Amino acid sequence: MSAKGINLMLAISMLYSIMETNSRFEFTNLNCTAFDLRVGEFEYCNLKSINRSYKYVSGKYKLHQIPLPNMKVNFIMWKRLNGYRPFLYNITVDACKFIENPKSNPVLKYIFESFSAYSNMNHSCPYSSDLIVERLPIGFMNHRVTEILPIPEGNYLFEFRFSHRKSIFAGTRVYFTIS
Ligand SMILES: *[C@@H]1O[C@H](CO)[C@@H](O)[C@H](O)[C@H]1NC(C)=O
Ligand SMILES: *[C@@H]1O[C@H](CO)[C@@H](O)[C@H](O)[C@H]1NC(C)=O
Ligand SMILES: *[C@@H]1O[C@H](CO)[C@@H](O)[C@H](O)[C@H]1NC(C)=O
Ligand SMILES: *[C@@H]1O[C@H](CO)[C@@H](O)[C@H](O)[C@H]1NC(C)=O
Q1: Which ligand neighbours the alpha carbon of 139 most closely?
Q2: Strand locations in 16-146, DSSP E?
Q3: Which of 11, 18, 23, 109 has a CB 3.0–4.6 Å from the CB of 102, allowing a cystine?
Q4: Closest residue (by CA) to atom 1 of ligand 1?
């Protein structure tokens, strides 16, 4: 590509990043549901607002079936248009294989990196204790979503379905807006 072409691309991407920096991420709702209490249950799962700038998400899933082999995670991204419609991603991975090699799925790697520092989940299998996400702050998510991977404005839903032997035992839905 010519130098001119590269400059134009740089200018466009800079403009794009300036525009995107003004966008805002907000968690709007959270739904954690345990479908099979033999496998485990949510002790809590909530969105807390300390003040205007400090809001966070926490959740704890108490694992009853220990260890839990062959856990699959299905991630579906939804965008609200007229009701929520699947948008861009519908991915299923084997949780243990993914944890051993996060690079195998760049989208899930990005999502995992968005909360792993606030969780106890970054270790290899088996998972034999409660799964916890503690005080994942909105400011951190704002940075991740709007500056590292710009997502267009809108209302979104990240849905995670956890299954074991083809049956879904738990689900988490994270609703957020980018404005
Ligand atoms: C959460 O999701 C479950 C399962 O889809 C649904 O039955 C329940 O009504 C939802 N809870 C809330 C508070 O929306
Ligand atoms: C919001 O709460 C956090 C934690 O208590 C505090 O550190 C921060 O200064 C508060 N911010 C504002 C704008 O009050
Ligand atoms: C996600 O993909 C699976 C496998 O291709 C499919 O069965 C399922 O219906 C899809 N889910 C949605 C919400 O599109
Ligand atoms: C998980 O832990 C490993 C080893 O401590 C570290 O290298 C890696 O960056 C961590 N991954 C995430 C997504 O936090």
Answers
A1: 2
A2: 25-34, 40-49, 55-63, 71-81, 83-94, 131-137
A3: 109
A4: 31
